[in-house]
Amino acid sequence: MTEATIKTTSDQPDFGNYVSLLKPRVMSLVVFTAAVGLIVAPGSMNIVLAFASVLFIALGAGASGSLNMWWDADIDSIMKRTQGRPVPSGKVSANNAMLVGLWMSVLSVGMLGLASNWFAAGLLAFTIFFYAVVYSMWLKRSTPQNIVIGGAAGAFPPMVGWVAASGSISYEAIGMFMLIFMWTPPHFWALALFMNEDYSKAGIPMLTVTHGKRSTRNHILTYTILLTPFSVGLAFTSIGGPVYFVLSIILSLLFLLGAFKLFKREEKIAIEDNYLEERKVFKFSLFYLFLLFTALLIEASFRSYDVRLIAWPQVF
After folding, report:
1. CATH 2.40.50.140 given to domain 15-167
2. Are 173 and 37 in contact (CB under 8 A)?
3. pLDDT tens-digit map of 271-302
4. How distant is the alpha carbon of residue 65 from its chain centre?
5. Does residue 137 sit in helix, strand or coil?
6. Whole-model pTM above 0.90?
7. Which of 10, 57, 172, 310 shows a CA-CA span of 20 to 30 A to 162?
């Protein structure tokens, strides 16, 4: 990380800049999936402790974001998409971002252990380590598989929520993990197609930079196909059901259709329409994950009130 490209830090950074360090938009999805993991888990948990557990998982996610901004300050200052972040824009010093990340890591892990159990706390600690060290410091700048392997960091939160409530890992927790893990590559590669210039300037070996956009489009379709059985398969676990099944089928077909359109797209046409289809697939992928986890919540509410629409098979 080089400090030369980072602007001078303001003497009095406001509180909002420190909130931005935590990557609140990314955190919102992490918090939601973690909360769903906790809610759909077996057993009961005191509502106050459940809320506290989700809060501390959120703080852990924020800690990861702050450490990532500290480490990536040099490349963030180069990329248009990230130049306005607190560290490269000089609103928060890199040293302060690191300290915030470290203190929040300790706080979130320790408090989650006290609020739920130390298994969940250990898993949260590993998640922070994986995102900040394995992904940010190693994978992101060294391999085009950065998103594929690094996607595990974003896939852990529902598992952490599940373990916080149940104290153990099961097929359902692994299923939620795999859903997000397989979703991450096509989601980020769709973004990379229209943000490729940024990654290239920053020297990040994103697949679009190392293998070209044609190969990336092929990979998006392949991973979307691989994602589908994990998405639909959750319907046949104890947390699934007919509502989730129908929605997963519809959303998966739409995702596959979007991925196939990208697969067929010529780069010349994509440039002419300012990557309209690529942007659509990227935005849809966000709704895809949000709606699937919402469906899991709906199924959980049916079970809590003993509502059975039809007899539903549980395979796993």
Report:
1. no
2. yes
3. 999 999 999 999 999 999 999 999 999 999 98
4. 11
5. helix
6. yes
7. 310
Please state, in angstroms and rounded to a whole number, the distance separating the CA atoms of residues 28 and 77.
Answer: 24
Residues 6 or more apart whose CB falls under 8 angstroms from that of 161 comprise 33, 34, 35, 36, 37, 38, 39, 41, 53, 54, 57
Nearest to residue 188, comparing CAs of 233, 156, 219, 167?
219
CA-CA distance, 176 to 187, in Å (whole number)?
A: 16
Cα 113–68–149 angle (5° rounding)?
Answer: 80
> For residue 39, how far is the Cα from the chain centroid?
19
What are the helix (H) ranges across 92-170?
A: 94-115, 118-129, 140-142, 146-155, 157-166
Backbone angles phi, psi at 210, to 5 degrees: -85, -35
Which residue type sits at 306?
A: D
Tokens representing 139? 């994978």
* Owner of token pair 């909002």: 16
Tokens of 93: 């010093």
Give me Rg for the CA atoms of the chain. Answer: 20
In a 13 Å sphere around the CA of 250, the CA atoms on its Cβ side amount to 10
Tens digit of each residue's pLDDT (9 = 90 or more) over 151-170: 999 999 999 999 999 999 99
Which pLDDT tens digit goes with each residue over 241-273?
999 999 999 999 999 999 999 999 999 999 999
What are the structural domain ranges in the chain?
A: 15-167, 170-307
Q: Which ranges of 22-117 would DSSP assign to H, the alpha helix?
A: 24-40, 47-71, 73-76, 94-115
